[in-house]
Write a structure and sequence with these properties.
Blueprint lengths: L10 H19 L15 E6 L6 H11 L5 E6 L4 H9 L7 E4 L3 H5 L7 H4 L8 H5 L2 E2 L2 E2 L2 E12 L1 H6 L8 H11 L5 E4 L8 H7 L16 H15 L15 H4 L3 E7 L3 H8 L4 E3 L12 E10 L6 H14 L1 H9 L9 H6 L6 H13 E3 L6 H16 L4 H20 L1
Parallel strand pairs: 1-2, 1-3, 7-8, 10-11
Antiparallel strand pairs: 3-10, 4-5, 6-8, 6-9, 6-10
Length: 420
Amino acid sequence: MSALSSRNFDRRTALRAALGLAAAGGLAACGSNTGRSGGGSGDGLVQYFHAYGEAGVEQAVKKYAKAYDKADVTTQWITGNNFEQKLFAALLTDNAPDVFEFHPQIQMVKSGQVADLTDIIEPVKDDFNPADIKSHTVDGKIYGVRMIDDPQFLFYRPSLFEKAKVEVPTTLEELIEAADKLTTSKVKGIFLGNDLTSVDRPLIWSAGADTLTADNKPAFNTDAVADGLTQLRGLFTSGNLLLDAPADSWDPSALIQGLTAIQWCGMWAMPAMQQALGDDIGIFPFPKVGSAGKQSVYNGGWSMFVNAKGKNVEAAKEYVKWLWIEQKKYQEDFATSYGFHIPPRTSLAESATKLKSGLPAEGVKLFNEFGHFDNIGWTQAMIAAFWDVIANTVRKDGDPKAALDACEKKVDAELKKLFG
């Protein structure tokens, strides 16, 4: 698995996750407190992490926890592709974690599941990437501390481009043409993940649209997005797209093993790719879709949250403050020693030597120029609804406009639940 292992979890998992969050919201509405003590470990704290694929991450996380002297911190390292499901199920029990990593989603705030961390972030707020602060803010309060920023790109093999006389594509048409020229009897032109959901938001942004407007209305149902879906359908049926790879797009093995000439993946995989391929590796943003579009880079990442329903909320906040606000040495280690990630702290991003040259520096440049961040209002249920659009129009031959209309209705219903 990888740093992205559960950002691109399968559609069924997304639906289960959405249901889990709905259940958590339902509990909150009843005003219940679990009455739990310390995640089952007395005065200790329990933290949940998904299983990162890069070697050494688990040991590092446990090393940081051991260095904390104000509480015993136990790490639950959740393996498998269903981190979300296990997390949300645990949050409904007496053994819920005190601290957990996830992505900013407003229903966790609305349901009272996550604690307000404004007081611990405020003193260093100006040292965080403003987009990371914005993506964790609801009604002026900040929920969650960003740990890493994870930009994602299309990785490619320059040697194969040269051989096929292909230029780096800047439009979706050019990308599809390149995939055709790069496909041989042994190598597919491009890999976008086994179910193509990895490029859900890049497709929207590159078409000049967005998930939601600033006042939380659907913004993705445009002719350009519909056209982009039609083009992806053409790619899907062309025979130039790698399907059913041994691992999904978060894992660099499809490119490393020579199964594809272009692969969607994240910055975390750069060290593994460089070790395997040397200098024969390049990156470019998701290409522009339609005349009004612009290339885009999806910035995923992970954030640390405090369980607001635990009995150790203040102790948990102290630990999060210590590790993810005060311990800059650990923050830089976490971001750059086990795969490459961009530290969300500007001061660390500027001083991180491993990101200053070569491919990582190019990644940082593309992140700064084309990066889009999570929208806290774009929830798991909305993500699942748009994944249905991809399944029904790209993998099957459904009408893109009809699928987008249906998705907009679902998203509207979710927005009404959240915002009235």
